[in-house]
TrEMBL record, chain A:
Keywords: ATP-binding, Cytoplasm, Nucleotide-binding, RNA-binding, Thiamine biosynthesis, Transferase, tRNA-binding
Similarity-based family: Belongs to the ThiI family.
Pathway assigned to this chain's UniProt record: Cofactor biosynthesis; thiamine diphosphate biosynthesis
CDD domains for the chain: PPase_ThiI, THUMP_ThiI
UniProt protein name: Probable tRNA sulfurtransferase
Gene Ontology terms describing biological process: thiamine biosynthetic process; thiamine diphosphate biosynthetic process; thiazole biosynthetic process; tRNA 4-thiouridine biosynthesis
TrEMBL record, chain B:
Molecular function GO terms recorded: cysteine desulfurase activity; iron-sulfur cluster binding; metal ion binding
Lineage: Bacteria, Bacillati, Bacillota, Tissierellia, Tissierellales
Cofactor: pyridoxal 5'-phosphate
Organism the protein comes from: Anaerosalibacter massiliensis
Family to which the UniProt record says this protein belongs: Belongs to the class-V pyridoxal-phosphate-dependent aminotransferase family. NifS/IscS subfamily.
Name this polypeptide is given: Cysteine desulfurase
Length: 390, 385
């Protein structure tokens, strides 16, 4: 009798022929995240992934696993041979642990027999083990409708017994849905947008725009700190840092004041697309949500989209601010986001930005600018670094 | 080229100070309270430093107490005096333009129901002695005033305060926040007849994490930190021997060079002022040039320029300055000092504090003004269209 951690996969199980690929990605990620926690052995076991680790690391490993996308829930299990006597012993042990943890009165046994050659059928095993528990513990009752605890028994090559299902985020393993370039500002929204897409399996890269010396180095450091927090979920992030002050100066000098924001956004998209294409990244990601600020109108989105060909993913488009804040708190980026360092948008913020820009007008204004030259120049001066998890 | 003009925030330690600290770390690491020789030697070094400092301030050895820095010195003085004397009265006086390490203690006492007077200041930061006289009551137990203002450099007329107290037959204590004053202006603690005086090591090219407090003999004060009764029960905790000896060295050097350095820096300030005035239009000078102001501080508003943007422009050229004061540039709020002297928003936002040291040269200033001119023009062109 020993202990392992089991990991249940949600949507991955639906992916048919691709299943092996998805599972392989996930196992590599788990390996990577747990290599400093006793380098556990990891194996597939008929629908689940199992982790054989030293028990002292269980809590730390489970905390890491909670942040791995593609996992639906996590269970510490007792692993035993599948002869009936062993199962009985294992069940008694598991139940003892439950009673040490919490004061419960009712339970139910739920058996899944993957090994169809096993001499007893699932309901019969549940019934027999239920009897074993009742015989061995006092003041305990079976409640099949609303039990306080479930005793799960999975019969496979071996038998696994567990009583906890610790929820994880679900989603799809990182890297199974292409790569995205996240426009990361110092605000609340963009880290949440990155999280949402990473949860759908997108491998993240980040690009940050600043206007030094109109913004401070501390402001950029804050954005890097946000990216560092995101690595807990997303793995290492390639971080591009772009100074767009020259472009803002040029717009400021040559275009109408109320178009400053929308013109800057178009430049940010062009710069991002250019870098993304060079790096084989498939999409841009932003934290925009409809109506939050002046540039985030449907007309504004249309004008911004028209500046590039690459898809711009906006996972927060229909979210309210409170919903975004809730997620930001959950993923622990909120406290950093609200630190008071200005990002580049506020310096050149027009007093009355155009809210329903017309593509024709904007394109007319851009005729005063040498777009390609400006884009290439800031990209030439870009800096990048790898943000690694801690 | 690197020009450091943020000497009110902190200063570069002198070589001799670094050597002294090195010696303490490597050779004289004993605890002054230990009975053995290593401890005794460390104790001797601490007492030597105390003598240097008391000599410089022209006070007695046993009137100098070592602390962890300026903030702690202000806290020990103000809280120690108020806590010990609150039975005599609950009225305490300070000014509107104090450092947060004083202002926030007063806010705390205000929240506890104390009667507080915040003295107003004129457009150069001077308190009105008539207002001070009028505000003194029978219940007044403490007046706390910053000798040299850290943002604009005003030297308050503290020599007059004792006379006013005597005239009103008041027993109130006087605390001077001397953190920007030690080594920067002539000090006459005895003549002024003040009761406590706080100072800090790292503002005079000494190390950080060390400060001191002068407490006049016979002053009725209680400790705010309890422990092993070091520093004659006023500041318990193992002595910071490195800091003490480093600060002692810094004071010794400043003492030997005071007149020379003071005169030199005042000339430099005048030179810089002149250069800026002739090269950059639309500015407002918030500091005075005469003896009523510290020679080390020149505060100027560049209208139509955001101070923080200018600060980053200059840092890119290796020039380090401050907006308002280092402490208030973190917070979003505008400098309370510049508000109190009546500057409008535009003048506050454009304010830069240049704080000099003996290490700066005319050559430095030429370079700074040249870059300043370019940066201000560039920023104005962008933001004032």
């Amino acid at each position: 009798m020993d202990k392992v951690i089991s990991v249940s996969l949600g949507e991955i199980a639906l992916k048919g022929l691709n299943r092996g690929y998805f599972e392989g990605k996930l196992i590599r990620q788990i390996k990577n995240m747990t290599k400093n926690l006793g380098a556990p052995n990891i194996y597939k076991g008929q629908g689940k992934i199992y982790i054989e680790a030293d028990e002292v690391y269980f809590e730390q490993i489970i905390n890491k696993l909670k942040k791995v996308f593609g996992i639906v829930y996590i269970s510490p299990c007792i692993r035993i041979e599948k002869d009936f006597e062993s199962i009985e012993k294992g069940a008694i042990n598991a139940f003892k642990e439950v009673l040490e943890r919490e004061n419960i009165k009712t339970f139910k046994v739920e058996t899944r027999r993957v090994d169809k050659n096993y001499p007893f059928k699932s309901p019969e095993i549940s019934r027999r083990i239920g009897g074993t528990i009742l015989k061995n513990f006092q003041d305990i009752k079976v409640d099949v409708h609303n039990p306080e605890v479930y005793l799960y028994i999975d019969i496979k090559d071996k038998c696994y017994i567990y009583t906890e299902k610790i929820k994880a985020y679900g989603g799809l393993p990182i890297g199974t849905n292409g790569e995205g370039l996240l426009l990361l500002s110092g605000g609340i929204d963009s880290p949440v947008a990155g999280f949402m897409m990473a949860k759908r399996g997108v491998k993240l890269n980040a690009i940050h725009f600043h206007s030094y010396p109109f913004t401070s180095e501390r402001a950029e450091e804050k954005v890097k700190n946000l990216a560092t927090i995101m690595t807990r979920y997303c793995g290492n992030i390639l971080f591009y840092s772009i100074n767009i002050l020259d472009i803002q100066k040029e717009i400021n000098a040559k275009c109408p004041e109320d178009e400053m924001t929308i013109l800057s956004r178009r430049f940010m998209m062009r710069i991002s697309e250019k870098i993304a294409e060079k790096k084989n990244i498939n999409a841009l990601i932003t934290g925009e949500n409809l109506g939050q600020v002046a540039s985030q109108t449907i007309q504004g989105i249309h004008v911004v989209n028209s500046s590039v060909k690459m898809p711009i993913l906006r996972p927060l488009i229909g979210f309210d601010k409170v919903q975004i804040i809730d997620i930001a708190k959950e993923i622990e980026t909120y406290e950093t986001s609200i630190l008071p360092y200005e990002d580049c948008c506020t310096v050149f913020l027009p007093k009355h930005p155009v809210t329903r820009p017309k593509l024709g007008d904007i394109e007319e204004s851009e005729k005063n600018l040498d777009i390609e030259f400006l884009v290439n120049r800031v990209i030439e001066n870009m800096e990048y670094s790898v943000i690694r998890g801690k | 080229m690197e020009v450091y003009l943020d000497n009110c925030a902190t200063t570069k330690p002198r070589e001799e100070v670094i050597d002294e600290i090195n010696f303490m770390l490597k050779k004289s690491y004993g605890n002054p309270s230990s009975l053995h020789r290593l401890g005794f030697n460390a104790e001797k070094k601490v007492e030597e430093s105390r003598e240097i400092i008391s000599g410089f301030l022209n006070v007695n050895n046993d009137e100098i107490y070592f602390t962890s820095g300026g903030t702690e010195s202000n806290n020990i003085a103000i809280q120690g005096l108020v806590n010990k004397n609150k039975k005599r009265g609950n009225h305490i006086i300070t000014t509107e333009i104090e450092h947060p390490s004083v202002l926030n203690i007063f806010k705390y006492y205000e929240s506890k129901g104390f009667d507080i007077t915040y003295l107003k200041v004129d457009r150069f930061g001077f308190i009105d002695l008539n207002e001070l006289e009028k505000s003194i009551k029978d219940s007044t137990i403490l007046i706390s005033i910053m000798l040299v203002n850290n943002e604009i450099g005003t030297i308050e007329p503290v020599g007059e305060i004792r006379k006013i107290l005597d005239k009103k037959a008041s027993n109130a204590y006087i605390h001077l926040d001397g953190i920007q004053a030690l080594g920067k202006i002539p000090l006459e603690l005895n003549k002024w007849s003040i009761d406590t005086f706080s100072f800090s090591g790292h503002k005079i090219h000494g190390p950080k994490g060390i400060g001191g407090l002068y407490i006049r003999k016979g002053t009725n004060i209680s400790p705010i930190i309890y422990g092993g009764n070091q520093e004659r029960e006023i500041r318990s905790g193992t002595e910071n021997t490195l800091g003490i000896v480093g600060m002692g060295k810094a004071v010794e050097i400043v003492k030997n060079n005071f007149n020379k350095e003071n005169k030199y820096v005042r000339e430099l300030k005048n030179y810089m002022h002149e250069k800026i005035m002739t090269n950059i239009p639309e500015i407002k000078v918030n500091s005075l040039l005469d003896e009523s102001f510290s020679p080390y501080i020149l505060n100027i508003s560049f209208l139509g320029v955001r101070g923080e943007v200018l600060l980053h422009y200059l840092e890119n050229k290796g020039i380090y300055v401050s907006t308002g004061s280092a402490c208030s540039s973190h917070g979003k709020g505008k400098s309370h000092v510049l508000k109190a002297i009546g500057l409008n928003n535009n003048e506050i936002e454009g304010a830069i504090r240049f704080s000099l040291s003996h290490l700066n040269t005319k050559n430095d200033i030429n370079y700074v003004v040249e870059e300043l001119k370019k940066s201000v023009e560039d920023i104005r062109q962008i933001t004032m269209r």
